[in-house]
UniProtKB/TrEMBL annotation:
Its cofactor is pyridoxal 5'-phosphate. Keywords: Aminotransferase, Pyridoxal phosphate, Transferase. It comes from the Eukaryota. This is Alliinase C-terminal domain-containing protein. Residues 91-448 form the Alliinase C-terminal domain.
Amino acid sequence: MADYYYFFLKNVLVVSLAMNMGLIWKISYEDEETLIPKWGNILHLHGSGLYAQKNNRVQEEEKEAHVSKRTQILATTSSGVATDGLEKVVINLDHGDPTMYEDFWKQKGEETTVVTSSWQHISYFSDVKNVCWFLEPGLVSAITGLHKAVGNAVTEGRHIVVGTGSSQLYQAALYALSPPDGSGPMNVVSAAPFYSSYPLMTDYLKSGLHKWAGDAYEFNKEEPYIELVTSPNNPDGFTRQHVVKGDKGILIHDLAYYWPQYTPILSPADYDIMLFTVSKSTGHAGSRIGWAIVKDREIAKKMTTFIEINTIGVSKESQIRAAKILQAVSKSCNHANQEAQTNFFDYSYKLMAERWKRIREAVNKTMLFSLPSFPLETCSFSGRTFGQLPAFAWLKCEGEVDDCESFLRRHNVLTRGGKHFGASMKYVRASMLSREREFKLFTERLPAIKS
């Protein structure tokens, strides 16, 4: 009887092992097919993808086990046209996840590594004498130093407010600029095509302080308003100025892309409220650090109050990491050091210029799509003369295609449609900041799309 019991148990274990191995193989196979984890689509949140990460050991084992499969999937012909089967690979360019920058920062190693002990950064407070009392002094120095090196913003005599990304700073600015005793919610507008998150963030809490009032070109009310000026603009990449002609408006300038890898720097920006973020300046979106440069002390105090109530400050670890990274970028911009290290903005500019060259070549091979053209201007930082190199391609479907987002989705390319930006559905926004393999597949697939 005992022998039978052990025989039975052994067979159960063998069957269980076989089933588990089959499941593991299936998951690995599916991940290779899509080039993104399945959880990426399930957990996709507006503006970014959340991905389930495999640990390094498993990745190395899969690298060995599936090398032939990966070679087959990622292979391309010498002519640059995708081989059979590649059209089934899903390319997700809906979000602006700046993974393009990973390779540069891998080279930096210890130079940008931050180590903290468990007893450090326990206090809520960073600098009680500062308007923004949770702002780390090291981050202030790094921010002002970088703007001085690049020449893209005035910081002298201004107040800096740190936030959990520029999204929190945007909401803090709306809070600070909306009078609490107004006759109604403050109108918030931006010229279409506008950043797709503006309407969502403005109305998310259904605040009585402010409300989304749509396209700035169509706003003609004799009422107070806040106009958002994004320059270079997300999604189309053009340089922007305010458009509402009324005298009751307050401006917020979102300058997330006013860096020399995306646009020629013409002069230091000098506005009342300017928003920046490390996610697009250096690519460190996961650190969730943004900063506002504010002229008026009272506005800066109100913005600080919003963040205090909202999150009781901003992570010190993230601030210290951001400071280290910004300092490394500033150092690389120093002409005396350029022989010893790569200038971050020079590297990023060349990468963006090369990607825009490739996508324009791809679009020129087909009559189905078109891209905007940009005037040439001379950058005061680099001395180069070039047109905009936006972080997103504002792609238009020509001809009879009325819904470009759905059209591309049928070809397994995920983008964000023009309707989300207050524009025609013939347009889509596609990220230019993805990893090389996604971008390569995208530029190979576009010319292969026939209908």
